[in-house]
Amino acid sequence: MNTSQPVEAVVALRGVHKQFGAVRAIDGIDLTLTPGECVGLVGHNGAGKSTLVNLINGTLKPSRGEIDSHVTRGGRGSAIRSVFQELSLCPNLSAAENLRIAHPTLKGLGWRRRAGAEIRTSLDQVFPGHGIDTDARVDTLSIAQRQMIEIAIGFAPRGGQARLVILDEPTSSLDAGIAEQLLAYVERFCAEGGTVVFISHMLGEIFRVASRIVVMQDGRVVAERASQDFDRDSLVDAMGHVAQHAPSAEQRRHAEGSVSAGAASATVIEDAAGLSARRGEIVGLAGLAGHGQAEALAKLYFAGTSGWRAPRQPRMAFVAGDRGRDGVLPLWSILRNLSLSVLPAGAHRGAVDRRAEATLGREWQQRIGIRSDDLGNPITSLSGGNQQKVLFARALASSAPIVVMDDPMRGVDVGTKQEVYALIRAEADAGRTFLWYSTETEEVCQCDRVFVFRDGKISAELSGAEINEERILAASFEMQEN
Amino acid sequence: MTRHSISPRKLLPLISFSVLLIATFALQERAMSYLGLNLLFNLTIPIALATIGQLLIMVNDIDLSVGAFVSLVACIVSTLLVQHPWLGWLALAGLVLAYAALGALIHRFELPAIVVTLGMSFIWGGLALVIMPAPGGTSPEWLRALMTVKPPLAPMAVVAALLIAAAAHLLIMRSGIGTVLRGLGGNSRSVARAGWRLSGLYALTYGLAGVFGVLAGLTLVGLYTSSGASVASSYTLLSIAGVILGGGEFIGGRVSPIGAVLGALTLSLAGSLLAFMHISPDWQIGAQGAVLILVLAARLLFTRREALI
Amino acid sequence: MLAAWQAQTAPAVKTGVVAAADAFTIGENQPTDQAAQIQNLILQGYDAIVIDAASTTALNGAVQEACDAGVVVVSFDGIVTAPCAWKIVNDFHEWGREQVDYMAKRFPDGANLLEVRGLPGTFVDDDLHQGIVDELKHYPKLHIVSSVEGDWAQDVTQQAVAGVLPSLPHIDGVLNQGGEAYGVAQAFRASQREMPVIIFSNAQDELAWWAEQHRKNGYQSIAISNAPGIAMVAFWVAQRILAGEDVPKHLTVPLYHIRQDELSEVLAHTPKGSVADQIFTRADVERLIQQARDTQAASTQPNTAPATDQAKNPSAAQEIQP
Q1: What is the pLDDT of residues A188-199, one digit of tens each?
Q2: Homologous superfamily of A245-315+400-482 in CATH?
Q3: Parallel, antiparallel, or unpaired: how do β-strands C256-258 and C223-225 relate?
Q4: Which residues of chain A are within 8 Å of residue B187 when distances are taken between CB atoms?
Q5: Where are the domains of chain A?
Q6: What is the mean pLDDT of residues B231-260?
Q7: ipTM of the shown complex
Q8: Please, which residues 105-134 of chain B have a Cβ atom closer than 8 Å to chain C?
């Protein structure tokens, strides 16, 4: 059928912009997807890949620009399918029932039989010999099997025909053999005139299936070439450059002989996974988002602090990145949010010492520059960046020798970042230890030592001059070519 | 559809029901008869219907207004439906629509269902008091006849329980739209991504729950022949307990209509069993709670063991 | 009522008049619970069920099941409307009339009366009120100047009476439905008005207050009530039916009166927090049945004998009480 079809774009984006509030997620993209091609889409976290996917499949409407498509786009019966990185099946339903949800024409008596047949056919095509029970509830299956079902639903006809399938990290939970089956099927699917957008951090896979590679950064397409025109190094180059407006790592990796960070200072943290930190050291946790950094931090933090009674001298303090979820207490004042970590220490027989609390608040307001005329105002009256400063102050005001930071700079403006970098550096020089998870390379470059995570494990330990964008990226992406 | 996955955990509602039924028969052999079975279970029919209504909402929410709603329906049935039948039916249809609208609102404004339904329970209760300041009323003739019908082979209560279980199973577990509604509890985002309008689905869920609530109110009046503004006030907790006892969970769309009907029957059986043992009714609510805890504990054990395998 | 039941059925069980007379209660005053209980009692094979119904209509389904299963159902105090059940009631209409009669005797030259009504919408409240209205027609000099709802509760009554008192003229007497008298007295005392003649009930606290007033200033009144002994009437009626006797479906039990001269003696026998009771023996009940039969014969055609041919072997009676 591909011979008779004119080479018409399945989807064409022209000058597409997408804004969420003040954030420009997509900043002018032109992209044409034609039948029979497999486009590899790569870029950092936050480069705008997910937004682009949702624009292509019709979930989001562009703020500006046009998207043309000659196939059904969006809604039930869409010929454009997306398979997401996070599992998006209904766990309480069987594979066949999950197909029903995405299948507009499965109706009437015997729909179960037809749904079962369709999903089995699709599974057999993509993953021959899969051995999945399509009538079993999805939550009784392994993660790999669930991922396979999701992919199979993506490719299933569903009362029409899949014309464009967007696969977002489809192999993240598949083993090599199964992943190879998928790659082979993607090739067949494209050869028969289908289109695939393949998003992966496994550059090997991208090179294996993509006929064209699109590199995104900051909501823009920064490179778009046939895949044979890329090699591993040029692709990594194209993905990442980070503005070096922060004080250079080399300069800052301070004068030899400074107290902190010397190999001589005592190790204060060491865990089984290989993560370690010395007194006065700033240790970075890098890698792509969701590869186990936050979990490693949480494990470390809870192991170090759990207990029925909060000790007067806490060992660790925590700065949350997800302010809304585990940082800010939205109903409380700025002051109370700030003083939370030191309340037990400043209390007299269980009662809060209000005067000491107020003094502490004023002191930190000056030191860290919280922009508010009254610390009694609710914390939600502050901007995101200032709320984050309060959380920093909360951690730093405590006497904890170790500060754990879970991507703490989200939504913080450049100026504030510079202030906080300086503050952290000063505290480290005074002997405090920082564990700092960040998805931004610029922040990671502030660290004395960096552990790069991939798939929940440490894939590299970098220190000194080794800490640079290229090394971090290389360790973040698996480069095996099978 | 559970060809190969019949686990002890799934059979638990049936097992606990059977254990209690055997104990009841052992204690009171009169119960083991056409008349006996009917007496044992007929008053549970409205509760079983209310439990199915609760189950629909418990796909990912909880409905604290079931009892008040069924009471209101009963008040309308025993007054308006008797005096002005078409006006009565209109009012009942209006209630179902109100329930559906409630579902759409809950989704549209992301309101917590537990709070909204708690609030609604006072509104339903107030309306019921307006309609019926003091208990009374009568049952429509046809309804009374329906609830006292003596079918061949099995008594009305057993036939009705089987019918409710079968209908609810077909609707919720087997039908396409029921599958989508359950999917809402499992992963509403993925249902939305597949192109469904969630507010429509929520309205459908609550509307169906309203239909079962209306059926519960109808059968209640048919059985008791009268009603009052708080006649079904115990149904809220009984229906939640029935769903849980039947293997359902509070979240995630893991429900079983057959289990829920069995759960409702089990709860009332527990009450009868205690009466036969000459235990004071003061203990009855506590004993029903004990049954609930026992079954949940057993379920936890089975779940743990399954997880180990 | 439960205590009276147990005290008086025990000898009957001992002497073999009945095999067992178990008492059951329900936790909350819910007709649905009571209906379920009746069905369980049918299953347990009792021959008769004696019931103080929580609802006049909501138990009809279950009562009909019982009758269909051949169980004798005797309802008392709170009666059911199911036609197959026996109904034993106090004459609430009479209760209303007697109160008016007493006031007429005390105030032959006329009086202002306050009426305290009970729980609205109940047949007891309706009957009692109707009795008052009907009897007042005979005494044009007695005037009801106001009427409040007390819901049969002291606190509600006190609040309701205190609410209307400022707007009322001098009140000579207060009619009520039993159990409100103390609340009325409290309200009058708080308003510093002269204490009117209040009709009392059989509650010990009311009787004690009355006795105290009598000691202090010669205060006089009467107590009229429906004593819990009615449960015993129901018991003996059930027993007679099971024994094969032909008992009319409706029986009226006389009201319990405590007159001024009986007060001190009754009070002496009534424990604190309890109620004064009237004891009905088997002989009393047989007399009541005979009376009812006579009035029935007098008022209706001869062949309306109720069908009581089931359950010939008296083995058990049963009380349910909300």
Answers
A1: 999 999 999 999
A2: P-loop containing nucleotide triphosphate hydrolases (3.40.50.300)
A3: antiparallel
A4: 88-91
A5: 11-239, 245-315+400-482, 334-399
A6: 88
A7: 0.86
A8: 133-134
